[in-house]
Fold:
Amino acid sequence: MTRADQLVQQAMALQRQGRLQEAAQLYQQALLADPKHVEALHLMGVVFLQSGQPQAAAPLLEKAVSLRPDFADAHANLGAALRRLGRSTDALTSFDRAIRLNGQLVEAHVGYANALFEAGRNEDALKRFDAALALAPAHAFAHCNRGAVLQVLKRPVEALDAFDLAIRNAPQMAEAHANRGNALRELGRFDEAIAACDRATELRPGYAAALAYRGFALLESDRILEALSSFDAALRANRNDARAWSGRGRALAAMGQPQQALDSYDAALALLPSDARTQFYRAVVLHVLRRYEEAWAAVDRALALDATLKGAHHLRANILESQGKREEALENCRKEFELYPDADYTLGYYIAAKLTQCDWSDYELLIATLCERTAAGKRAALPFGLLLVCDSGALQRTCAETYAATATSLLLGSGPLRGSQSEKIRIGYFSSDFGNHPVTHLMAGLFAAHDRERFEVIAYALGENRDEYTDLVRSGVDRFVDCRGTPSHDTAAKARADGLDVAVDLNGHTMGSETGIFLSRVAPVQLSYIGYLGTLGAPFMDYLIVDPVVAPPSNRAFFSEKLITLPWYQCNDTSEKPMANAPGRAHYGLSEQAFVFGSFNNMFKLTPGMFAGWLRILRRTPGSVLWMYVAEPAARQRLRDTATSQGVDAERIVFANRVSRGEHLARQRHVDLMLDTYPYNGGATTSIAIRAGVPVLTRAGEAFASRMGASLLVAANASDLIANTAEEYEEKAVQFALLDGKSSEAARSITQAHTTKLYDPEAFARHFERGLEIAVERARAGLPPEDILVN
Structure:
């Protein structure tokens, strides 16, 4: 035995004991004695590998295999060094040579599989792991990494089995526990996932991957603040963890902090630009920030990386919708639905996009599917989307409760609410629509009419709208709080500090709502009004404002909230005046002799059944026309085509354009009979017409939204204009046109409606305030919410 051989034997003993530095010194001495000693070269390379120095290991291992080309172990270890250096192709070659020389070399199979996995050859990697495990069934790392491959292949159940096998063979393997947690998360078993990740961090404190996976499990179980804390802990452990940066961005976005979320996504993509999902999330917050061109570019990058990325085409539709490109938006909704017909809310989004464009192809089938899925408790549509097409109060409640159960929780945990601590009741109105929007058109009068001896009024403006109507709101309240760009939890904290007695949600389940504010419980009494016509299905909402028409006693089961029942439902602002010297009929393409049916409701409220009924009315009333507000050219053409196909001259459909508010109020007088939509009635649109003295025919159904028109007509003393079936609706319209309905008692009532309680903000305010007083008295007495009837 040579001197070099002796030194190698001594070094091997030290290496087995983990005394790597001492072993390295002896291997160096051996190589000084014999620079071509293959074992010394090989094992010195292994020491460097074990020490995390692949750049030092590779040259030694390359020299070893050049001196002994049939040295299988050296080829395998060279593959490991090259893989760590990112030289995937060379690594695969080395592993292949090792296996050809010795097919029983387990670590060569494992290394080969890992290299294939990193190269994106997932199916090949899976086969190679199977080969390794056939040789060594108890190889924990092979089981663990095999599970990782199965996760990428979207086989989470099999992945979980693989991680369980890894843990059975190596209970202290932190990686297996962390990966197990991630697989459990993918299976929706969030509590188990969090526990598995916690076990991983017990075994390896500060384990960044486990902390990141824990964050995702918390995020997806709506524990947002805890998720953010977990992602931050992961980043303290490893600032270069792209997953943690991405997850942090998602948590911040859920908390209403889009700019901060964008910063985190940028950090993630700087580390891993090929992450399609993070590119997508980045596009989402850019859209929220109204940076539409950048959002479009970001979602395009995401689709270039993954052409079937879930949610990407829907996001493109949202961006296009924001830019007024609704026909293109519809096409993207269609693509999303074709790719993911069963994904949460995809069906509802698709139906809503079709309604906006009056595209009614497959309507009956789509609506039946929507209702079936909603009844089963699935997230088929957002609650507002269901109101547009379904008149079942029970189904609407199911939909709202399903949606509310997934709402983001941002509980502040800041102790009991103190209220205003004064004789005055402090009301906070929250809305994203304090601008040129129906909510403001209706509410401005109430804000100004509140009794300032008994009430203090604060408006919390959540949205971006800022115009002359915002100024109208500002002038009508005691304090206007601009919450633009403010995270929901900060708005909630601010409202709590203001000591509100009552918080009024004027959004409900509509665009721009910030549910997290009310989840945080910002006032002892929280109620929903005007923005959303139905139950919110949310345990954090105490009351819903109704009247006996929109919520008759027989429909009580449709509402999760306690009801504050007022004599009439809708407040109205009467300060707005129509344009003076407004254009005549000819200006709008209307004949002076024609009987004009009208509809100025948004077209997403129009269903094919409703339009078919309107066409039947036209066929039975010669010389009549239908004047409709339809903005989209494609929608107009579809309506013309439908009219022609059903025997009505398309020229009898006259389209109204968007005009100024004053002109819109003035042009109402050119309509002889307004036709209301069903199952979602007009609200502000109907009250505008009634105030102008124009009769409105409505059809009353079962649910709140389909009884709104009836509520307004009852308040205006014109109940004769309420129909209860489609047939009655059509017959009333025809008889009104043919028998000069304008001289009927109902029509005469409408001409005097502007003098009724419906248009008396002061009277409405007193009833509304009485309801709030009773609710606050109960809360201050420590009593739970209860139905309240205001006479």
